[in-house]
Every structure is written in C-alpha cells, then in structure tokens.
Design goal:
By secondary structure, this protein is of the alpha+beta class. The chain has three helices and six strands, in the order ααββββββα.
Amino acid sequence: MRNAFKLLTMGLLVTIVFAACSSSNDSNDDKAQEFIATLDDFQGYTSWTKVHTATGEDPLLGDAHGAKAPLTRNVFFKDNVQPDNGKYPNGTLIVKELRDGNGDLAGALTMMVKRGGDFNPDGDGWEWFMTTTDLDTVLTQGDNATAGGGMCASCHAAANTNNNGTDWVFSR
C-alpha cells in the first residue's frame, strides 16, 4: 500500500510539473507566432499579387524608391494578404521593385515583413529589407532604428496617419 501511495504521489508530482511547463509555453504564444523571413521567402515575388503600379517621378516619396527617376514602381503582396481590423497578420510579405523604361530591374528591391512577436514593437512588428535585385545580398535589414538608418520607418510611419495607409503600408 505504501508503494502504491508513493507511485501515486510521484505520478501526481510529474503531472503537476508537466502542466506547469505546458502553461508557461502557452504564455509565449505571441513569440511562437513570430515570423522570420529569409531571402528564399521572396523568391518568385513577381508571381504574387501586384497591388500597385506607379510610373514617373513621385515627390511624395522624398528620396526613396527612385522617387526622382522616371521608373516604374511595382508593389507585390504574397498570398494577396489583406489587413484585418487595420493590421496585417504576422508573415505578411511585401516587395517593391523598380523598373526602368526598358522593363529591366533597377536599383534595389525593398521589402517589408510583418514579423510580429517581440520584434520591433515601436513599428508594429515590421522588419524592413533592401536587397540586390537578384535577391542574393541583403543591403540593409532591421527594425525602425536600424534598417536604412531609420529612413524606412520614418517614412512608413506616415501610413498610419491621415488615412494615408494601413499598418505602416501605403499600397492598400
């Protein structure tokens, strides 16, 4: 009887420890949902949904995205993701490309990734990228402060004001 009581007590103790460990993992669900993109995630972006095209100079872009050049700027969303209650879901991938008058890629590709989790809370979880047009080399990447020396976020923050966009995104 004494051995049965010890076994029951040990079993109960193991169950309590297991339950405690499981519940502590549940409190980290937001971290578990963080999406970390690699350059491979952007391959084939031209087959994604093109949501915006603009050609020519665009003074509203300041010095970004070929604003002062007669280029075509195309914006692509993977899986045609839409915002829900004004927020894009974690894992949202957006690419902006520049093309010259001959249709050739020019400059660099710029991307936004909704990482979520604990990443860039001041930027609603967005990560900014700039890569070579062949998606071979990252030129800049990071949060509001680090990507492009803060230039990406300083401009895209305006998408949250005056109904200029949604969740740091101007294209939708």
